[in-house]
Amino acid sequence: MQALSLHMSKTAMGASQKDFESAMNQVKLLKKDPGNEVKLKLYALYKQTTEGPCNTPRPGVFDLINKAKWDAWNALGNLPKETARQNYVDLVSDLSSSDSSSQVKPEADRKQPGYETLVVTSEDSITKIMMNRPAKKNALTIQMYREIMLALEAASKDDSTIIVLTGNGDYYSSGNDLMNFMNIPPGEMEKEAKNGAILLRDFVGCFIDFPKPLVAVINGPAIGISVTILGLFDLVYASDRATFHTPFTHLGQSPEGCSSYTFPKIMGQAKAAEMLMFGKKLTAREACAQGLVTEVFPDSTFQKEVWTRLKAYSKLPRNTLHISKQSIRNLEKEKLHAVNAEENSVLQERWLSDECINAVMSFLSRKAKL
Ligand SMILES: CCCCCCCCCCC/C=C/C(=O)SCCNC(=O)CCNC(=O)[C@H](O)C(C)(C)COP(=O)(O)OP(=O)(O)OC[C@H]1O[C@@H](n2cnc3c(N)ncnc32)[C@H](O)[C@@H]1OP(=O)(O)O
């Protein structure tokens, strides 16, 4: 309502007709929508300046827009035309200066500090969490799991409407960094496996409990845990260059990220088994046909199309969107936490198995060109 309060003239001399016309042009150039109340005020002052006090019958009760305009004009009573013109010019001048001070900041300024493995930015009511180890295909280190949890926690409390997880470079993510299995001192393996299971439980738990719409923007291939947690997202947009691969059996490991529950629900038992047990790699189009991906876009226009879509979604009524997300998730939360706990206890055992140790050694020896 503050913006609707009558504006005092700031200039000693009254605004001229030329000032008024120039203010009318300036309004068209505003980058930020001033909101309905201010627009009504501008309309009323314009009418008062050009026609004087309100002189038309009040529109009918169902003609909501014209009624609101009429009310705003009528509220100016017998305000003299010159004063209305001055108030119009002053109001536009205020709007123009706040418009230029709220210009979009360069990306470097929007970047949230404190993350080493992520780039976190907020713009247009969207918080974007970008995994940022492109040289290692965004493989998830222990630090990265922790930073993603911190970024999600912060995003759940910020004023964003939608949260996006994406990757920098040619991969979305190659999943767990297999170096997480290295440098474990002899005799410490059991303790490390237990700590790993706790970390994983907390990591997946953050996605289960996340209260706002979560969108995965899959810019390239995705492997392992970066695929399994997709069943906990609300939207999954993929470039047609993306692939989806869960080679758990080859790695002597078992499904996590609640995929043992979400994948059969999403794609049916047989297709889930092909992925989670036999390690079948899906193209983006196959993943879309099976319901894991919401929509596939050509790689050449992927970023442009997805961000245009997300910016439009981010303008939806925020609280309603969050409440809808929570209503849908609340039906499943208890079950998902139980699945998460069970998967992690199985995986904790798997990490100690010969099959898993041999698979990790095989990756490392290929890497070392042995
Ligand atoms: C006691 C246990 C404690 C564990 C605690 C863990 C907690 C949570 C665990 C959750 C369980 C998750 C399971 C999974 O995600 S399983 C999936 C694991 N990922 C893989 O198996 C992928 C392995 N990588 C590859 O197959 C290839 O690198 C890839 C196909 C991704 C790309 O091949 P390409 O030839 O194009 O490129 P490079 O191989 O040269 O890769 C570039 C460099 O990046 C390194 N890299 C890539 N991915 C990984 C990875 N997942 N782990 C470690 N390093 C990775 C690769 O080695 C190259 O590095 P260099 O340039 O230094 O050689």
Describe this structure in a few short sentences.
This protein has 370 residues and is of the alpha/beta class. The protein has helices at 17-29, 36-51, 64-74, 81-101, 107-110, 142-157, 189-209, 225-228, 259-267, 269-276, 284-289, 302-313, 318-330, 333-351, 354-367, and strands at 111-112, 118-123, 126-131, 162-167, 214-218, 222-223, 235-239, 243-245, 282-283, 295-297. The protein is 51% helix and 11% strand.
Description:
Pfam families: ACBP, ECH_1. Residues 16-101 form the ACB domain. Its EC number is 5.3.3.8. It is found in: Mitochondrion; Peroxisome matrix. Pathway: Lipid metabolism; fatty acid beta-oxidation. This protein is α/β, with parallel strands linked by helices. The protein is 51% helix and 11% strand. It is built from 15 helices and ten strands. It has helices at 17-29, 36-51, 64-74, 81-101, 107-110, 142-157, 189-209, 225-228, 259-267, 269-276, 284-289, 302-313, 318-330, 333-351, 354-367; strands spanning 111-112, 118-123, 126-131, 162-167, 214-218, 222-223, 235-239, 243-245, 282-283, 295-297. It has a seven-stranded mixed β-sheet, with helices on both faces. Strands 6-8-9 form a three-stranded mixed β-sheet. The longest helix has 21 residues, at 81-101. The protein is elongated, with a radius of gyration of 28 Å. The termini are far apart. The model is unreliable at 1-12 (pLDDT under 50). The protein binds ligand L4XM7KOE. Ligand L4XM7KOE is lined by residues 136-137, 139, 174-181, 184, 192-193, 196, 199-200, 223-225, 251, 253, 256, 351, 363, 367.
